[in-house]
């Protein structure tokens, strides 16, 4: 089986579109200007708008029987409309000062993270039907209790001193082309009367509301927040970070097309393939001609500068284009140049592939592991090591 050979993973040098405007990013102020332009272009051509702030976010907290976790009910109001959704919060033991937070969306959410029957099943949630998640008809069922716990190794994160806050993406916006407009954020935010949007933008908005919820918890230092997400939720985590500077660090696992994987490298999923299977994720775009878009995914990553970004990839997951992502990441690092004096070392794609490379260049970290499309305790351990090594940009 040669599917994950280097020859298949890397089809040759990537010619990123030479955009004259990028050449002007020499100072932090110029970077901010270019980021504003790029964010607008990506909103207009691919992801759609991230809606405005809600009027109110109210959080109530309840302990969960036999678990060290709390069940949060988050109530959001917008123009007299209300929406209620849940999340799970864990706090590290013995806190004597506010702690940093790792938060994000999970494919199954509270039910998938805990076995407790105290956690209600959201009948409106629609989640991925990929066999790995076990929700064959897109719905959360009893049989999914506890099954995504391995994707959030909570004890490891708590032992490293982080609080952990996780919700189910499909409760906020159904991951389903036929119902995503009917339930959750789309009606709450009256999206049909606002600029067009897609679910990646709405999930990013949801992640922002988790940050609002965290800000109501005295135990959490809301200036030290990292957001994590796997695959489609990695795309949403990156887009949330690109739009919200409260996020000091972002960890995107196998985020692939529309995430870290550049259109300029023809490996894995294309925007056209993504739009065909998941038309609700983005706005309608000319995915058949992605190279005509006025940006590529290195620009997407560059929106997060100067904050911290960590990418993990897997050798057998060519669909998410690990090597293209690595090269886009390297290219995006030009946006981290203002104010930097040291040169960074980016090993060649071949070296990365051969040695299962780990790269850590200040606030930019990357690793490639064996195996396939998933987020594993191994990936989290490397992300935690990366966070620990940070000189705490934004406090993380
Ligand atoms: C599909 C899709 C990817 C996505 C992945 C996931 O494979 O094509 O773009 O990242 O699902 O979210 O698991």
Provide a brief overview of the structure:
This protein has helices spanning 6-9, 28-47, 110-113, 154-159, 169-172, 185-188, 199-215, 232-243, 271-277, 297-302, 322-332, 349-355, 377-389; strands at 56-63, 69-78, 81-90, 99-106, 163-168, 220-230, 247-253, 308-314, 358-361, 364-369. By secondary structure, it is of the alpha/beta class. A hairpin with a 2-residue loop joins strand 2 and strand 3.
Architecture overview:
The protein contains 13 helices and ten strands. With 396 residues, it is of the alpha/beta class. Helix 8 links the parallel strand 6 (220-230) and strand 7. Helix 7 crosses helix 8. The structure holds alpha-D-glucopyranuronic acid.
Sheet/helix structural class: alpha/beta
Tell me the quaternary state: single chain
Number of helical elements:
13
Strand content: 15-25%
Largest sheet report: 10 strands, mixed
Q: Low-confidence parts, pLDDT < 50 over ≥5 residues?
A: none
What is Rg? Answer: 20 Å
